[in-house]
């Protein structure tokens, strides 16, 4: 199976934040932002797999700064790590005030996606080709997070077997 470069699946999405995305104080709902994160991550994962994907998990999500009605949200997603049938996608979220041009890093998340074949079964993924030092660093960090996720999953499974 031929590998794919990180750059081949990278995604940048933009979305204006409107009143329907916010509470009465004008702060955009975290759930609306998380849906956009899942969408951007899913597009990057689909581009890598060239198949349908499903979200298997999302790692911790911290909001560093609020997002307001009128802000332009920019989501940058790229594949960090690829296993046999799953992959980690990192998504960086920035909010831009379209009047001043000031951008704020409002959050980041790591999502795990599983690619599905025509029978909706997990399918083998093309390997990830790392070209830059930053991509290699992100890949190593993602491999560490994967090990932690697998250990936590194993721990939870044992807990529920009792």
What features would you highlight for this structure?
2 helices, Thiol Ester Dehydrase, Chain A, two-stranded parallel sheet, 162 residues, 34% strand, alpha+beta
Structure commentary:
This protein has 2 helices and 8 strands. The chain is an alpha+beta fold and 162 residues long. It has a single domain, classed as Hotdog Thioesterase (Thiol Ester Dehydrase, Chain A), CATH 3.10.129.10. Strands 2, 3, 4, 5, 6 and 7 form a 6-stranded antiparallel β-sheet that branches. The chain has a two-stranded parallel sheet with strand order 1-8. A hairpin with a 3-residue loop joins β5 and β6. The longest helix has 29 residues. The mean pLDDT is 95.
CATH topology name, in short, is: Thiol Ester Dehydrase, Chain A
CATH C-level category: Alpha Beta
Mean pLDDT: 95
The unreliable regions are none
How many discrete structural domains?
A: 1
Characterize the biggest β-sheet. 6 strands, antiparallel
Query: What is the CATH superfamily label?
Result: Hotdog Thioesterase
Oligomer classification:
single chain
**Helix and strand string, N-terminal first?**
EEHEEEEEEH
Distance between the termini: 41 Å
Number of strands: 8
In short:
The chain has 162 residues and is α+β, with helices and mostly antiparallel strands. The chain has one domain (4-161): Roll (Thiol Ester Dehydrase, Chain A), CATH 3.10.129.10. It has helices spanning 30-49, 133-161, and strands at 4-5, 11-16, 52-58, 62-63, 72-82, 86-96, 103-116, 128-129.
């Amino acid at each position: 199976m031929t590998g794919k470069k990180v750059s081949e699946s990278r995604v940048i999405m933009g979305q204006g934040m409107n009143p329907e995305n916010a509470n009465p104080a004008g702060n955009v709902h975290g759930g609306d932002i998380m849906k956009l994160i899942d969408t951007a991550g899913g597009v990057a994962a689909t581009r890598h797999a060239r198949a349908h994907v499903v979200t298997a998990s999302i790692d911790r999500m911290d909001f560093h700064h609020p997002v307001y009605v009128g802000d332009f949200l920019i989501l940058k997603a790229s594949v960090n790590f690829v296993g046999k049938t799953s992959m980690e996608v990192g998504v960086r979220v920035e909010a831009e005030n379209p009047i001043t041009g000031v951008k704020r890093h409002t959050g980041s998340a790591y999502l795990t996606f599983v690619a599905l074949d025509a029978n909706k079964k997990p399918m083998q993924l093309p390997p990830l080709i790392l070209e830059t030092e930053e991509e290699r660093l992100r890949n190593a960090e993602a491999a560490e997070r994967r090990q932690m996720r697998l250990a936590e999953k194993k721990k939870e499974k044992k807990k529920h077997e009792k």
